[in-house]
Hints:
The structure is a homodimer.
Chain A: H1 2-8, H2 15-42, H3 47-58, H4 64-71, H5 75-87, E1 91-95, E2 102-106, H6 108-129, H7 134-146, H8 150-158
Antiparallel strand pairs in A: 1-2
Helix pairs in contact in A: 2-6, 3-5, 3-6
The first copy, chain A, binds a DNA duplex through helix 5.
Amino acid sequence: MADLNNLLSPFFLNDKEIRKVIELLFFSYRDFTSGPDKILEKLNFGRAHHRVIYFVGKKNHITIKELLGVLQITKQSLSRVLNQLVSEKFILVSTGTDKRTKKLSLTEKGKKLENELSTIQIKKIREVINRFDVENINGFKQILYEMIEDNNKKTFQEIND
Amino acid sequence: MADLNNLLSPFFLNDKEIRKVIELLFFSYRDFTSGPDKILEKLNFGRAHHRVIYFVGKKNHITIKELLGVLQITKQSLSRVLNQLVSEKFILVSTGTDKRTKKLSLTEKGKKLENELSTIQIKKIREVINRFDVENINGFKQILYEMIEDNNKKTFQEIND
DNA sequence: TTATTTAGGTCAGCCATATTGACTTAATTA
DNA sequence: TAATTAAGTCAATATGGCTGACCTAAATAA
Lengths: 161, 161
């Protein structure tokens, strides 16, 4: 039966092979975040701070509500992290046209940190990806994209329009 | 200059495109772990328990030391999680030939939970992966593998030999 | 055989990141 | 004017990490 399955669907992957993917995701994601973690530690920041800095850098003038939508954490969780970043002058808060909203942006200090952290991850990805051909790279991106829940696919598109 | 780069290296990816990969990794990894999280919550377990159950299931009779090497956490961190799993009879501890060591294995109850959690993730990966061809899938696995630090590549190989 | 190393455990305290629930303020919109 | 929305805050709780100090028992090296 297993043989028949392999015969009929050449792209079929058995559980054993798929478990390897589970492990690859675990190990690669952990190592992917380890570089920035070391820099953040010196500033007494964590990965949560990195995410905020990343997405504020990505979308200048992002509001609190939008940021909460991207991060999918509670406003209480965001509050602590964001207040630290604001009080230490990595992030600047201004009022929106709708005066209920706030617009977040990186200060020069914030941009510098954002750049330092992203450079590590960009370099790492580029080093890996340069060893593969364009079909593999596009396939890689597409597979990751398809692993995202539909709701969050929208978010990905929104921050990239 | 950027044009020249693109001209000379067709596989060159600019920072903007690489940033998309950073985001894809963040969103996909988060959604990938959200399924099991819901089941674990009912048992008052977290992702740390899942990892222990996963790797004990993966390598029967794994020792504490080996498990610490895979998870890369301190024994104090492992201790709390593992003791819960043992006291709630998901994991069985026996003594190794070297009587200083302990061998961990899943009980029937543990196997059942492991299966329940892994099934969700395997299903998710299979659903995605079945929409791609074998070259894309292999490329995907290889790129993830290359993102792992050398030390941890060894670990991945060891648990898969 | 004694000394050292190794595998594992434990106690205590600390920090980061997340949660829920309840409540407030100010501004916008119906 | 009433309802909704964006944002903030206080308090309590859980999870999952960490460091440091210290312990036991077994295996191995000097």
